[in-house]
Write a structure and sequence with these properties.
Elements lengths: L5 H10 L5 H15 L6 E4 L1 H16 L11 E5 L27 H8 L3 E6 L11 E2 L3 E2 L15 H8 L5 E2 L1 E3 L5 H6 L3 E4 L18 E3 L1 E2 L2 H11 L23 E4 L11 H18 L3 E3 L2 H4 L5 H17 L1 H7 L5 H12 L2 H22 L3 E6 L29 H6 L3 E8 L5 E7 L5 H14 L18
Parallel strand pairs: 2-3, 2-6, 11-12, 11-13
Antiparallel strand pairs: 1-3, 4-5, 7-9, 8-10, 8-14, 13-15, 14-15
Helix pairs in contact: 2-3, 7-15, 10-12, 10-13
Length: about 475
């Protein structure tokens, strides 16, 4: 990891004692206090506890203790993940009085072990079910690039805080695009790793789909964070200890598709942005592009619709069928609609979709082999308003399937990365999604490195300064 990256530069400065961890925590708290009121990305802080932990770290480093790779770096945690002593509301007013967690979640614990300081929590849609970040407990989060628009979801609070320079690290999870969607809409680079690369604890509500993973302002940081977060977990039957960094580093074939499911044509602005990004990446990689139609990719079944058939009833089961039924009228309209449909999906439909999932995995394995990547838009829309509506005259509820382009990779377990690739006419960033063979996460990071060198993007939204400026 080069010290040129935001996280690397900060950790190196702390390790060399050029800056103190306690000053970084103070700087992060000040930035959040000053910048967050306009965005509503941060929902809780533990500033006093973080300052005490930073002071202990500073003393240990002064005494000669070794510094971890994230020494003293402040972190915000998505409020789907546990942080010791903080409540985990999952964005639900129904959990507003939940008891504080007694231990850190998996990724927060791994970040803390690497030397990071956990300072607070970020907003998300209720139970992480939507592609926009709004709930009845904390309200809606705005996008730093265009505040009336959404930063995406479900890791939208974390992405907004990162894009506004409030913090150098903010955590994410991805069960249907929840890292890649906010990364795309907030001008960040974000990866959903191969399923099992980062073990799951606890096993998620969407059993086969969800994984932790990072997004970042630059590829160097993304690579470091994935290294810190990766590793197996006892009790997760799909986690693996394979050396993912050993995957091939260069693709040999580029495929491109406007969609992987037949959900209609892309909006004109999205299609133009995608075509331009594909041409630019093909030039960077010096490879020709083979264009494909959705029916060439999957001729039997629809992985996007089958994702819903599996995810909705699994979420009902995780929360408890009777509890869901009795609580629907106290939920945000988006999650209420999602869970109401989940209540109606029968066992035969559910098991049919589970069986088709194996065919989707086989088809994508065959299509990608060991050295082919698939290019798609990360998001099949220019964006949506902060409260989740596509237009101001629509009711608040679930976004339609046609705006999404990320569920396939959760269905099959393949890694996918979103690369910043310009801005839409509404001012919201556009993301290019690159899907690789399973276990080829390192190849995607290499592609991202080359893309960043050829097409560098801003570290933050206009009007904001990167967090690393606090050490300059």
């Amino acid at each position: 990891m080069s010290a040129d990256g935001t996280v690397g530069a900060i950790a190196s400065a702390v390790a060399a004692r050029r800056v103190r961890a306690v000053d970084l925590v103070r700087a992060a708290a000040e930035r959040i206090d000053r910048l967050d009121p306009a965005l509503n990305a941060v929902v809780a802080m533990r500033t006093d506890a973080a300052l005490e932990e930073a002071e202990r770290l500073d003393q240990a480093l002064d005494d000669g203790s070794p510094a971890g790779p994230l020494a003293g770096v402040p972190v915000l945690v998505k409020d789907l993940e546990d942080v010791t002593g903080m409540r985990t509301t999952k964005g639900s007013a129904l959990l507003a009085e939940t008891a504080p967690a007694v231990m850190d979640g998996l990724t927060p614990s791994r970040l803390r072990r690497a030397g990071a300081i956990l300072i607070g929590k970020t907003n998300l849609p209720e139970f992480a079910t939507e592609g926009y970040t709004a709930n009845l407990l904390f309200g809606a989060t705005g996008n730093p690039w265009a505040p009336e628009w959404s930063p995406g979801g479900s890791s939208g609070g974390s992405a907004a805080a990162l894009a506004a320079g409030m913090i150098p690290i903010a955590t994410g999870t991805d069960g249907g695009g929840s890292i890649r969607i906010p990364a795309a809409l907030c001008g960040l680079v974000g990866i959903k790793p191969t399923r099992g690369l980062i073990g799951r604890r606890p096993i998620p509500d969407w059993i086969d789909f969800s994984t932790d993973g990072p997004f970042a302002t630059n590829v160097q940081d993304l690579r470091l964070l994935l290294q810190v977060e990766a590793g197996p977990v006892r009790g997760d039957p799909e986690s693996f200890p394979l050396p993912w960094t050993a995957s091939p580093q260069r693709p040999e074939v580029l495929l491109a598709a406007q969609r992987t499911s037949d959900l209609g044509p892309l909006p004109t602005a999205v299609a133009h942005a995608f075509d331009s990004a594909v041409a630019a990446l093909a030039d960077v990689l010096a490879l020709p592009v083979r264009w494909m139609e959705p029916t060439e990719i999957f001729s039997d079944g629809d992985p996007d619709l089958d994702w819903f058939t599996l995810a909705a009833p699994e979420h009902v089961s995780a929360l408890g069928r009777d509890w869901v039924h009795d609580s629907l009228d106290r939920m945000h309209p988006g999650v209420a609609a999602f869970l109401r449909e989940g209540l109606e999906i029968g066992i035969d439909d559910y098991l049919g979709a589970r069986r088709r999932r194996y065919r989707y995995v086989d088809r994508l394995d065959t299509l990608l082999g060991t050295s082919t990547v698939l290019l798609t838009p990360t998001v099949a829309a220019e964006g949506w308003l902060a409260d989740g509506r596509l237009t101001a005259d629509q009711p608040v509820g679930m976004l339609p399937p046609s705006v999404y382009s990320t569920a396939l990779q959760n269905m099959t377990g393949h890694p996918a990365i979103s690369l910043p690739a310009g801005r839409s006419p509404n001012g919201v960033p556009f993301g290019l999604q690159v899907t690789g063979p399973r276990f080829a996460d390192a190849m995607l990071l290499d592609i991202a490195d080359r893309w960043q060198q050829a097409n560098p993007w801003p570290r933050t939204a206009p009007g904001y300064s990167p967090f690393e400026t606090v050490i300059s």
